[in-house]
Amino acid sequence: MNTTMTMKAESTPLLAIDGKCATLTLNRPSRRNSLGDDDLRTLLAHFDTLNAHPDVQVVVLTANTTGHTKPVFCAGYHVGGFESDEHDPNFFEQIPDALERLRPISICAMNGSVYGGATDLMLACDLRLGLFGAELRMPAAALGLHYYPSGLRRYVSRLGLNPPSGAFFDRSKRFLWKRCSRPTCLRLCCQPTTLMQGSMPVCRRAEHGATGHAKHQGFAQRTGRRPLP
Fold first, then answer.
1. Is the pTM of this model over 0.70?
2. Distance of CA 144 to the CA centre of its chain
3. Which of 41, 43, 73, 89 has the fewest CB atoms below 10 angstroms from its CB?
């Protein structure tokens, strides 16, 4: 897989397909890659493309952090969307749910810190790679938000019971990735120069004939739900 990409003007998330591997890149660095409704709709469209593309076996989700002193993978939902007359409070949860059901194996290459609802995006992926020194924050209760059931399930299944309790109810609580040692949470903690390389072994296995069968079995075991065909 070609891990180099020349970023153009900021845009909705970018999809690049190279053989059996694909890369999804969040591309709003000036607003810390926060996601507006147009970005969420684009992600859903990209998921449909990937599910319909039989050759793609692995998807790497990452972000453009150009210009960040302290890189941020994603700052969650763009708060400006809350003021829109067309805002649907139940829309955001559709994206991590769809990501979890994605046919190809998904790897979240978190090249920065993760905040708000974006924490559920990374938990919805099958594998997670993070940067040393990056952090996770999700002060849902402090913001007056009721978190949706599927997101709570992902938090507990990946992080255990105690860390999500602090993450949701204490806005000052932050978790450094090096502390997230559970195999179900973080597979590897990397330096910035080696983060994307960490996803290469999975991509190479896919290029040598791996299929999504194991992913489908794992999804069924985790959720009790039938995956996409």
1. yes
2. 23
3. 89
